[in-house]
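Case study 2.
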Amino acid sequence: MPERSSRPLRIAIIGAGPAGIYAADMLAKSEPVQSGSLQVSLDLFDRYPAPYGLIRYGVAPDHPRIKGIVKALHKVLDRGDIRFFGNVDYGTDLTLADLREHYDAAIFATGAIEDADLNIPGIELDGSFGAAEFVSWYDGHPDVGRDWPLEAREVAVLGNGNVALDVARMLSKHADDLLTTEIPDNVYRALRDSPVTDVHVFGRRGPAQVKFTPLELRELAHSKDVDIVLYPDDFEFDEASDEAIRTNNQVKNMVSTLTNWVAEEQETGASRRLHLHFLHNPVEVTGGDGKVTGIRFERNELDGSGGVRGTGEFLDYPVQAVYRAVGYFGSALPQVGFDHRAGVIPNDGGRVLDEAGSPVPGLYTTGWIKRGPVGLIGHTKGDALETINHLLDSAADLPPAGTPDEAAVVALLEARGIEYTGWEGWLTLDAHERELGDAATTEGPVARERVKVVPREDMVRLSRNTLGQAVPFG
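Prediction:
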């Protein structure tokens, strides 16, 4: 094995979403690398055939400004100094022992893709769904079924964060108004045929405590033929609310928007209605014959400090579907510690910890699997920087890879018959999706930037057609 000083530091990053790409970019641009005192060789792995993670599979298709982050991530991977391996699943196709053998360090950036639990009676009924799975469906996730049971006329969405508003907007918006986005064809057809008339969004706290952003809120008003309905009794403010309104411009703007909507009477006779409810604590999903027929809440009141307490008053709403958007949750990774309560890899500033609380040499983490699913995408940069600084500080002490040659991991994947994809393959798939969009534009009523390819086997086939019989990383 070559001496460490005579070869680049080999680093694997597991997860090619924003967190993983930001980490790779920061390593490539770090001061030791730029000054020439350190060389790095970076490989980015993802279980999906395409890169971008949350941006491709977790952001509503009618969010073009957020999707614009892809342009920055594309520039990073298009430079050519970071290798991308798609359709490679950590724990199945590559093990921790493989990473130890071929890399000096590994960074886990696998995110949080599961729904947090909501333990109330009836949550298991037919017609009760997790928002994360629904988001994956309408974003064309390759591992989610193509069909979704959009059969309800009245729907409840539980949560007051951005995901709750995304879900409510997608359910209430007319499908034809989504045609200009990258919405998959199967999703368009299902939403077009949905019988929904009323979507209710319920939050436990008051209007000054919501967790969504002004952008998300304003976008609700852009849906055609959808009335926004609010209820004056829900507009309660305590001392903590007043303080938040005085000191936080974001809270001030959102409360102003909401109170203006109440005063202006938003009902115009539209064919669909999106209701916003506050101070509602879900206590039971009610049903019959195993299916959702309604949902029961206890009415809350503010306690003066921004929290809430129950009033003992209960309210029932007839709905035929319930979507819980109460947060995402991370997934445990094979042979890596996991905090099952918080849904994260135990870590100290990004250094993975063992059961005794000591750093595991050579293992790091960043993004939501490090800190939990909180904050916006932009917060991931600061998170990655902390992790990268710890890795660079320990660079001289990292356990050296036994087989650090760059070609060795490619040979390993080839020997195991892994149908991995590469950056050139993504460029081919990306171009194909844009061509599908051009064809749909020619044949249809609106311009479409792309039509997303959904089946994993199709994504892999189109991407690997670029490779031919040659190894893509010579």
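The first helix runs from residue 18 to 28.
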